[in-house]
Amino acid sequence: MRNGLPGVMASQGGVFLRRQALVCGYTSREFDRLIRGNGPFQRIRYGAYTSRELWQDLDDCDRLLLRDRAALLVCDGQTVLSHSSAARAMTLPLHDVGDGLTHVTRLSAGKHSRIESGIKHHRLGVSPVDVCGVLGMRITAKARTVLDISREFGFRSGLVTADGALRAGLRQEELMHAVTAAGSTPHLPALQAVAQQADRRAQTPLETLARILLINMGISDLELQVRIVFPGGGHAEVDIYSPGLRHVFEADGRLKYSPQLDRYGDPVSPDDVVWAE
């Protein structure tokens, strides 16, 4: 790279525009050659690029985040990342939102939602007070992001992100206030349910989904992350406990039963984990 393009990339989180490369001294013909085949430049979306070396080093989640960055770069200054794109930027948990799109919202409301070049532009405007900066990007704040995901993807997806947002510092009263401020909307029942049922004690999306399943089964007296002391000494910390049923529920993913290291750095086998359970 030449003439300041690395600096442009660094200031924009690893992304640059074609027109920025031309300003830095590349000719159109030269640039077109560099993006072909295994050339040094990797196209992210129309008009936006990164280095092929950086792209190959990223996992799927980081590639999505880079696409979100590129989308924001090609939009005007009145546009912010929202919905699942905002949640990704804040590393909030997501569930069942894999539409492959970058979601953006303008400060002023639009006439209708539309999808262009992999970017979904949402109609509902966003207030400046609901905008924050993360990693050099303009995004919707936590409460607004939770409501947007609930509107777009439904209650289950919204609650998973809501639990994560509370763990990340959002206060439940802030979420309730955001629902009230949203006013009358066809999605209001789902928004209210998400705000009321959100619980910062849920440590993983799987625990959130397990809680939803139990409530749907009619088991509603649920306490999360409960410490149970044994009469003979010792204790157990459980994911979910129902006092009425005197029953413990654990929500474990496959990763827990894979070879791993304990807190001392010693190897632990799946058999060891099961035996300890």
Question: What brief labels describe this structure?
Answer:
277 residues; four-stranded mixed beta sheet; alpha+beta; three-stranded antiparallel beta sheet; flat
Please give a structural write-up.
The structure is a single chain. The mean pLDDT is 93. The chain is an alpha+beta fold. The strands form five sheets. It has a four-stranded mixed sheet with strand order 4-5-7-6. Strands 1-3-2 form a three-stranded antiparallel sheet. Strand 8 (131-134) and strand 9 (137-140) form a beta hairpin. The chain has helices at residues 5-11, 18-23, 28-34, 52-57, 60-74, 83-89, 142-153, 155-167, 172-182, 188-197, 205-216, 270-276; strands spanning 16-17, 41-45, 48-51, 79-81, 102-106, 114-116, 119-122, 131-134, 137-140, 223-229, 235-242, 247-249, 260-261, 267-268. The longest helix has 15 residues, at 60-74. It has twelve helices and 14 strands. Helix content is 41%, strand content 20%.
Note the topology:
Blueprint: H1 5-11, E1 16-17, H2 18-23, H3 28-34, E2 41-45, E3 48-51, H4 52-57, H5 60-74, E4 79-81, H6 83-89, E5 102-106, E6 114-116, E7 119-122, E8 131-134, E9 137-140, H7 142-153, H8 155-167, H9 172-182, H10 188-197, H11 205-216, E10 223-229, E11 235-242, E12 247-249, E13 260-261, E14 267-268, H12 270-276
Helix pairs in contact: 6-7, 7-8, 7-9, 8-10, 8-11, 9-10
A few lines on this structure:
By secondary structure, the chain is an alpha+beta fold.
What is the count of DSSP helices, taking H or I runs of 4+ residues?
A: 12
Question: Which residues sit in consecutive blocks of at least 5 with pLDDT less than 50?
Answer: none
> Major sheet: order of its strands?
4-5-7-6
Overall spatial form: flat
